[in-house]
Design a protein that fits this description.
This protein is mainly α. It has one domain. Helix 4 runs parallel beside helix 6. The longest helix has 22 residues. The model has no long low-confidence stretch (mean pLDDT about 90).
């Protein structure tokens, strides 16, 4: 349904051998914007809309963009360390970073949310 692994590698997918042995560190960033097919892209976009829009309203697009990029590259680094025999594409690491930001906001403002829940 989606592009072949050879096509994804040409476009910048994360491949451990190319990053480490051929010094192609740029793949840690480019793989965030590649997807393995339409279903993969739609799943990431739905997650981004559900999590990202709410956070962007509260923190602004610059902060969310920084969190997205740092989390995406961090996810790529972890993916390349633990999954060496396959290629990796997608924005799952970036989405988990946004989810972590949302959870940290919830935990730091827990008293605000708990008061509004129990006073209804």
């Amino acid at each position: 349904m989606g592009p072949t692994s050879a096509t994804l590698q040409k476009l910048g997918a994360l491949v451990w051998d190319k990053v480490v042995q051929e010094y192609q560190g740029w793949r840690l960033l480019t793989c965030i914007w590649l997807h393995a097919g339409v279903a993969h892209l739609l799943a990431n976009m739905i997650g981004l809309v559900l999590i990202g829009l709410r956070l962007e309203q509260q923190f602004g697009y610059v902060r969310i963009g920084i969190i997205y990029l740092v989390s995406g590259v961090g996810g790529s680094v972890l993916s390349s360390l633990f999954i060496r025999n396959t290629i990796s594409v997608g924005a799952s690491g970036a989405l988990f970073g946004l989810l972590g930001a949302m959870l940290s906001k919830l935990f730091t403002n827990w008293t605000v949310y708990s008061v509004s829940i129990f006073n209804t």
